[in-house]
Design a protein that fits this description.
The protein is an alpha/beta fold. The chain has a single domain, classed as Rossmann fold (3-Layer(aba) Sandwich), CATH 3.40.50.2300. The protein contains 5 helices and 4 strands; from the N terminus they run βαβαβαβαα. The protein has a 4-stranded parallel beta sheet with strand order 2-1-3-4. α1 runs parallel beside α2 and α1 packs across α4. The two termini are 29 Å apart.
Amino acid sequence: MKKYNILFLCTHNSARSVLGEAIASTHQSGRFVGFSAGSTPGTKVNPFAAELAKDMGYPEENLRSKSWDEYGRPDAPQMDFIITVCDNAAGEVCPFWPGKPATAHWGYPDPSQVQGTDDEKRRAFKEVMVGLRKRMDILAAMPLEKLDAMTIQSELKKLAEVK
């Protein structure tokens, strides 16, 4: 079975995109290798995102904030899918992605901006995680190897409407 590389983008690569990377990489289907990056990466991964990623079984040593420039290099893994998960990153001019991957915007509110107790913050991160997992489950159920590039692109964008 082919494994699909999927890159999640968000401006600071500290929360939503990191959750996407962990969800894709630990998905029960085994069909994806997740990556994440940002246009202006932060210095560290948000502790609530890191906690959820580790709970999924994602290796702690893989949790780091990365620049999307890493994935535009000739020696970088070629992506099959690129998903922006924050509105800022969706509006930015992205690097050239070799191989013409399918792209889509799956926007989520920034959970790191939630004010309140730690439980309220955790709840906001879990909501993003649940939404991303639901979309990944639908993507994993698709017969991707049988679909042409235009159909995949269309289906990936339709997943943005899944709540």
